[in-house]
């Protein structure tokens, strides 16, 4: 069993539902769920939180084509797609945990 996501989907950033990409979800195998894409999203968060949106070397490790000391800009559509991805990730992990640990679901 694995929570493996399709690599092409992650790297391309295609707007697909996360649950459609999960193969046999199992909470104990979810450590790397969406790791490359999630890391990039966390780098964006770090940049806006700690660098006021100005690109630093740490950010360039995940976004090598961006120029050092430039302002990183993101459209509203890009932001919403990333936010939706994170919400779907949380939903997928919650569902796997409910199944594996026989937890009650709530609405």
What would you note in describing this structure?
By secondary structure, this protein is mainly alpha-helical. It is 53% helix and 0% strand. The protein contains five helices and no strands. The protein has helices at residues 7-12, 18-21, 35-50, 57-62, 76-100. The longest helix has 25 residues, at 76-100.
How is this structure best summarized?
The two termini are 27 Å apart. The protein has 107 residues and is mainly alpha-helical.
- Please give the alpha-carbon distance between the first and last residues: 27 Å
Radius of gyration: 16 Å
Shape: elongated
Biggest β-sheet strands, sense, barrel: none
Mean pLDDT: 76
Give the amount of beta strand, in percent.
Answer: under 5%
Following the backbone from N to C, one meets helices and strands in this order, namely HHHHH
Fraction in helix: 40-55%
Count of strand segments: 0
- Oligomeric nature of the chains: single chain
Topology diagram in text:
Layout: H1 7-12, H2 18-21, H3 35-50, H4 57-62, H5 76-100
Based on the model shown, name its key terms.
107 residues; mainly alpha; 5 helices; 0% strand; elongated
């Amino acid at each position: 069993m694995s929570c493996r996501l399709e690599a092409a989907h992650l790297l391309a950033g295609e707007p697909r539902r996360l649950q459609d990409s999960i193969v046999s979800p199992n909470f104990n195998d979810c450590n790397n769920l969406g790791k490359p894409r999630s890391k990039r999203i966390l780098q964006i968060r770090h940049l806006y939180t700690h660098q006021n949106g100005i690109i630093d070397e740490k950010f360039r490790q995940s976004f090598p084509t961006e120029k050092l000391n430039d302002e990183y800009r993101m459209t509203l559509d890009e932001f919403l797609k990333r936010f939706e991805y994170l919400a779907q990730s949380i939903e997928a992990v919650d569902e796997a945990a409910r199944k594996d640990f026989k937890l009650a679901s709530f609405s």
